[in-house]
Amino acid sequence: MSQTRKNRATEKLNRRSFVKTTGLATGALMTSNIPLNAMGHVVGNEKLKLAVVGCGGRGTGAAVQALTADPDVELVAMADAFQDRLEKSLAGITEHFEGERKIKVKEKNRFVGFDAYKDAINMADVVILTTPPGFRPQHFEYAIAQDKHVFMEKPVATDSVGVRRILKSAKLAKEKKLNVVVGLQRRYEKKYNALYEQIQNGTVGKIVSGQVYWNSAGVWVRARQPQQTEMEYQMRNWYYFNWLCGDHILEQHIHNIDVANWFIGEYPASAQGMGGRQTRNGLDHGEIYDHHFVEFTYPGGAVIASQCRHQKGCFSRVDEVFQGTKGGIVARKGIVTDLEGTTLLNASKEHDPNPYQVEHDRLFASIRKKEVIADAEHGAKSTLTAIMGRMATYSGQTITWEQALNSDLSLVPENPTWNSNPPTLPDAEGKYPIPIPGVTKFS
Length: 443
What we know:
By secondary structure, the protein is of the alpha/beta class.
């Protein structure tokens, strides 16, 4: 597909609001000594069969981008917990391509329910995993066991048990030479890679401190409907329940936390912080906080101040800022300065390709070239970093990396059904239990 056509497709997609307009990052290409015959079987110009598991807005957008990335990709299967979301997604994707013969999802290949992911994955060469993140470890584990290439959204788990499952499957994916791209888009953005190159070249010296932000007004709320079971209500309002979402420090702020880990080249040794609910504290806001502030301390001595907030009418900022021994970085502006404040680099994103599209372009190019992109491990470790921050704010304790990694606190039920109760239930007044610092346990 020509670059002009890709740009047209991306613009069209943005107009239809299938993809977020913020966020952005680069999957590490790795070479393995595993024999080529151990790789996924599709190479060259063969048709690639695509399946989508999780048909919300992000799944719809990722499907369009995947179909745009390679001329020989066909969407053959879709899966979601809800029939209405699947049908809406399929209609949007079909409309986007306006009759192009890329959409081949027969009615019998539209799978609905908690176990629907297996049927969809079985039909594909490449799978998109975009359900609420609580389900990601189980879905990723199955996809890799079935020898599928994967694009999966961040975060990749909501608890430490899930992170460990991801890490185990990530190792197997490398052994099988399967490509895995994680939707931490900043690693696929030209501007961020230019900044990273300056760090590697020593322009700013050693990073000793930084501030990372995701401060915004918050996200959607879906009202409880008559006759809705508790399980359906929580599934449709997944953002507000930790077993499904993991709180916004994980679901959104992971982007900024991941940049800190990437630029510093380490993962935190410990975290301590505070948080709570002040303005987003209604019955329809589940159990999560509306603000978190965490101090991450890294093995090499760097200290990162992390803040995220979902409060209307307040200061908003989504950014990453770093101070080094020789200079500083303001990532959102793409600026590198020396210690006197003189600009050394302005890596503006004016001519950057859309990183959401670049993720898929590189994924499919890597499959065709018999190369391997291996994002799952750093995706899992940045997920764990954000979980460690949540543990710190919920408990009021200092949490070490080892404590976070080895925690046995499991939030996600193994085999949920529509008739089972979710892990968290409201009381007689409709209130959910809220984490209390000094009381809530982290493991």
